[in-house]
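Deviations from the work plan: none for this task. Representative record:
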Amino acid sequence: MPVEITSAGNFSGNLKAELKREVTSDSISAFEMAALMIYVVTQTVMARKSSKGSAEEFFPDKLTLPLLREAAADCKACDLWKRGTQTVFGEGRRRATVLFVGEQPGNEEDLTGKPFVGPAGRLFDEALVEAGIDRSQTYVTNVVKHFKWEPRGKRRIHKKPNAQEISACRPWLEAEISVVKPKVIVALGATAAQALLGPKFRVTKQRGEFIESTLAPYVMATVHPSSILRAPDDETRRLEHRRFVEDLKKLARVIK
Ligand code: SF4
């Protein structure tokens, strides 16, 4: 009986042509048929592994933080894995009360594999202490888990992730939120705020306000600590630092 193989998924042109040929039980032996079927299955798996689009394709069978972290290390759902040194997954307590979300790892984070350890991370730690928030109650992560950068001389300069990269990486963040189940989520900066609260959200207008959301009982956005470091002068930096601590104090009140 003739067997026609017509579906070759994302296979290359040659392979598609090869698989489209009609195979009959008269023309090949059972052994050849079995070999061909193994070839089809192997190529399907390979095509899936290298396909782009969503981090969900790389999810482990069970959603736990250690398994998610391990799986994210091999993620190739967008092209940023080629540019960054490693995946920088979130860190913190499994049942953290507050989950902070930044945009993406920076240079130091990329090299160490840990989130919020660079200059902005140190400023963030200081602000948490000033606001009276225990760092051990928190989980910190980013919307995008690989460092996107462009060369400038010998330096690697941060480059904003695009919509496709944010969308591809988003399932990791959703999985982190679903496992941690924080009482409060704080988006740090416009990229995180818009990824979580929609493209119309404006940090400049709504920073420090609790926004109604299905993500957690309390959701707030404020600036990213790196924007404070980029302030044009010391006085602006001091002012912005104070405003950032004031925003953090609001969430400190709801977790007491
Ligand atoms: S940025 Fe996110 S989606 Fe893209 S390769 Fe890295 S972990 Fe995967």
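Strands lie at 3-4, 22-23, 91-92, 98-102, 138-142, 149-152, 155-158, 184-188, 210-211, 218-222.
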